[in-house]
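Q: Structure tokens for this one, please.
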Amino acid sequence: MSFRQNSIVHATTSPEDSTKRIHEQPINNSNSPNSPNQNEDLELGQKDESVDYMARAQWLRAAVLGANDGLVSVASLMIGVGAVSQTVRTMLVSGLAGLVAGACSMAIGEFVSVYAQYDIEMKLIEQGREVNQDENDKEPLSNPLLAAGASALAFALGGVLPLLAGAFIKTWGIRLGVVIAVSSLALVGFGAIGGLLGGAKVYKSALRVLIGGWLAMLVTYAVLKVFGIVFHMEVSSSG
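A: Here is the predicted structure, written as tokens:
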């Protein structure tokens, strides 16, 4: 009797009820491409990629490296001249000459380099070989005048720091120490700024720039000192 009742119950279950039960089962949307978790991941990925470091490469190189070159060149020149002359006037004149000559040299060199890059970009556009065909997404062309001006200005700004540091100190030893100290602090600052804007580790960039500047100043001082000893150059301490 019980067997018959069970058979009747199973028989009365229609296919429509089974289909309804299947549709009523909860669907796991964890693997759905439009799930909230994946949308959040996509948004985070877009935020991480929002900084275009390649777009910064041109002006970053012209500004930070120009300032670093001006600082190291003028400071090394003043320290090198200070190895054979103790006068304030001689160190300042040599530093000022290095600043003007270096700024002009940086501007001309940057103009020629960026103009060559500009010619290549124009040639690629004329030949239709650019990768991105969408005009709205094209990156701006290189600007030789802007790069030259940025390099000259950055070199001058970097070079004026050691000049101002040693301009008002008459004692030779203290003057050299102040120039080295101010130049070292500026080197750390320039290196940190370059690393921050370039996406690199700040302390590594600052340490690399600082060591490079120290080596340049040390080598310049040593060479001029040996030169003065070999050729019996008299060290002046007046003026």
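A few notes: The helical segments are 2-11, 15-24, 36-48, 57-82, 88-127, 144-166, 172-198, 202-230. Residues 1-13, 22-27, 29-33, 40-48 have pLDDT under 50 and may be disordered.
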